[in-house]
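#help-structures
NK: newbie question, is this the right format to request a structure? protein is Homoserine O-acetyltransferase
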Amino acid sequence: MSSTISSDAPHVFRLPRPLRLENGALLPQVEIAYQTYGRLNAARDNVVWVCHALTANANVLDWWPGLFGAGCHFDPADWFVVCANVVGSCYGSTGPVSPPDSAAESLYHAFPLLTVRDLVAVHEALREHLALRQINTLIGGSLGGQQAVEWAVQQPTLFENLVLIATNARHSAWGIAFNEAQRLAIFADPTYAAATPEGGAAGLRAARAMALLSYRSYDAYQRSQTETTDDALDGFRASSYQRYQGDKLVARFNAYSYVALSRTMDSHHVGRGRGGVREALGRIRARTLVISITSDVLFPPAEQQLLAQHIQGAMYAEMDSQYGHDGFLLETTQLTHFLERFSVQTYVH
């Protein structure tokens, strides 16, 4: 790869060999959609790799504005930014609705279980394809943060800086219960079993409305969705907002990828096979910033405090936000402040 490469157009990378998954299943052919922004400098040491959350895509400038983009903390004028759409998704990468190879039919609900480690294996294959020997900053929130911490455990010397936002070392029983409740809503939709690209749409709409309650907070709903008069008996703003958000996701995502990737999130456990969470986090050697959100009920601050406690030399910051878990996408001014502080922090191993 040239040190002057620059592209914001989508690319597709096909893994050179079948992907053996952690549970033993085999995906015979895997394609990954990814995007890059900016240019590699002569030293090839200005790489920022972004791991995205559950329903996002490779276009980080679109879904994380204010943090990535011209004039932002991660400005492509200074950084070479890489973001890959995860396997299992529906934005150009191999997933339940895309055939596993050119001679097969789509797998839909028969798509094999993916773990966070499988997602990381594909990131690693793409990194090798791009010939990136060092990554300055690895960053992710939520499921993206789960990928980032897993990758940093696997490759302690690859990353100079690690930024973990609203995420954890092991997905909680609370988080798994939220995901299972959403999947039950999808499974209750009889069209899900029909295995068509539109299958499970009504269930996905309900699942998204349910998920939103874990992404936001009581205060956020009180401020934005409370009725402006005392006369309403029906047709409440909060009700229409839930329907609107469900419709938005159905228009851009599918139920099969949602089920697959929510199961991936449930699988997250950096301590599996490594002697536990503490031992696994102790492998990380990157300078680490861990950020929590005070109103996050899905990934509460205690989970980020655990990360910071067991990652050597980690800096911990707490973001005050009314937006709950979604604050990691919305509070970019606060994120920028924490990142600026982190960039000048003296790091001690």
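mod (FA): yep, format's fine, and the tokens are attached above. The CA atoms of residues 281 and 310 lie 6 Å apart.
NK: thank you!
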